[in-house]
């Protein structure tokens, strides 16, 4: 969800991320908070489901296709049943994971390098923010 202040200006975009790597989870959170985006990171499908069903659910879901031990495909499917956009990322060499993410319903699948270098821009474009069009130099 996107919170709004009393004047109707966007304040915070809530994002739910399935990411097991603690260091990368911190990088996501720290990078996106500078753009009024609040990332909640979970490491398991059960925690993902719990946060997905919460009252103030996310506006976007981010999934790392390299997440082991968690069913990232099911996470994508669950997010899509709630009409949430899903940004998936993973190794540019893992074409099978890319295909599975798209089959599960991911809105966009990018390589780790693209995700790391353009995280805020990717999120803004998926959410359809007008200012994101200025950043659209998307090459994957």
Summarize the structure in words.
This protein is of the alpha/beta class and 140 residues long. It has one domain (20-89, 96-127): Rossmann fold (3-Layer(aba) Sandwich). Helices cover 40% and strands 23% of the residues. The chain is built from six helices and six strands. It has helices spanning 22-33, 45-53, 72-81, 95-104, 112-117, 119-127, and strands at residues 2-4, 10-18, 37-42, 60-64, 86-90, 108-111. Strands 1, 2, 3, 4, 5 and 6 form a six-stranded mixed beta sheet that branches. Helix 2 runs parallel beside helix 3. The radius of gyration is 14 Å and the shape is globular. Residues 131-140 have low confidence and may be disordered.
Q: Cα-atom Rg, whole angstroms?
A: 14 Å
Mean of pLDDT: 85
Poorly predicted spans: 131-140
Number of distinct helices: 6
- How many discrete domains? 1
Fourth CATH level, the homologous superfamily:
Response regulator
- Do you know the CATH architecture? 3-Layer(aba) Sandwich
Q: How would a textbook summarize the main sheet?
A: 6 strands, mixed
Oligomeric description of these chains: single chain
Shape descriptor reads globular
H/E element order:
EEHEHEHEHEHH
**CA-CA gap between termini:** 27 Å
Q: Briefly note the structural class of the backbone.
A: alpha/beta
The CATH topology label is Rossmann fold
How big a fraction of the residues is strand? 15-25%
Strands, total number: 6
- The CATH C-level name is Alpha Beta
Helical content, roughly? 40-55%
